[in-house]
Specification:
Elements (H helix, E strand, L loop, with lengths): L2 H17 L3 H12 L9 H11 L6 H10 L2
Helix pairs in contact: 1-2, 1-4
Length: 72
């Protein structure tokens, strides 16, 4: 699987959590799944998501969806 294919797979899985209302689960899924591919391990989005969660910037479906969809 290419890096881009893996990233899209990660996003799809994480957005399923968003759709079910589990925003924390969406971020946790995204962070975990990014670590499962050699080219996305250590992705900057992992650190960024932690920081944004700590300051309350990933607390709504819209915020989490925008963050996930914006990862590349």
């Amino acid at each position: 699987m290419t890096r881009q294919e893996h990233l899209e797979w990660c996003k799809t899985r994480a957005l399923e959590y968003v759709d079910s209302g589990d925003f924390q689960g969406a971020i946790t899924s995204m962070m975990s799944d990014l670590g499962k591919h050699d080219e996305t391990q250590g992705h900057a989005g992992i650190q960024r998501s932690v920081g944004l969660m700590m300051i309350g910037q990933l607390s709504s479906a819209e915020e989490v969806r925008r963050f996930i969809e914006g990862l590349n």
